């Protein structure tokens, strides 16, 4: 009998905890809801010629010698996350996965420094562990 009561109470406590945790997520605070929207002045920018899309492009930095995580962050920051994912591969000959990017250093990059990057560019870094020498 007590086991049933204990299980029931435990289930209720867990259920209430989940509801409280979920209800605290997302949504605007009361202060945010009370704010009055203010109009923003907008200006028309010169349009691209008919049929052409304005090109997004950036200059690839030299990231050789950088920590892999920093190199990835720099690409994301440079492109405003238009290039969000970059690839990397182990140059140490062991085909290791780069699980903790902060433990790897960039030895090579597939796009030369100064070359154009576009949203469709696929950036790939050749890396070794921080305590290893680039081949």
**CATH fold label of the domain at 58-129:** Trypsin Inhibitor V, Chain A
The fraction of residues assigned to DSSP E strands is 5-15%
Secondary structure category: alpha+beta
Query: Can you give the helix content as a percent range?
Result: 25-40%
Strand order, sheet with most strands: 2-5-3
Structure description:
This protein has 135 residues and is α+β, with helices and mostly antiparallel strands. It is built from three helices and five strands. It has a domain at 58-129: 2-Layer Sandwich (Trypsin Inhibitor V, Chain A). 29% of the residues lie in helices and 15% in strands. Mean pLDDT is 78; it is low at 27-45.
In short:
It contains 3 helices and 5 strands; from the N terminus they run ααβαββββ.
Any key phrases for this structure?
two-stranded antiparallel ribbon; alpha+beta; 3 helices; Trypsin Inhibitor V, Chain A; 135 residues; 5 strands
């Amino acid at each position: 009998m007590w086991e049933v009561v204990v299980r029931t109470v435990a289930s209720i406590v867990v259920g209430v905890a989940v509801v409280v945790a979920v209800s605290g997520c997302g949504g605007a605070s009361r202060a945010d809801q009370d704010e009055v929207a203010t109009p923003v002045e907008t200006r028309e920018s010169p349009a691209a010629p008919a049929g052409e899309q304005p090109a997004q492009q950036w200059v690839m930095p030299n990231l050789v010698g950088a920590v892999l995580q920093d190199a990835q962050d720099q690409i994301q920051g440079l492109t405003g996350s238009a290039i969000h994912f970059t690839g990397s591969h182990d140059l140490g000959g062991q085909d290791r996965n780069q699980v903790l990017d902060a433990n790897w250093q960039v030895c090579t990059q597939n796009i030369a420094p100064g070359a154009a990057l576009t949203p469709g560019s696929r950036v790939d870094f050749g890396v070794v562990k921080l305590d290893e020498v680039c081949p």
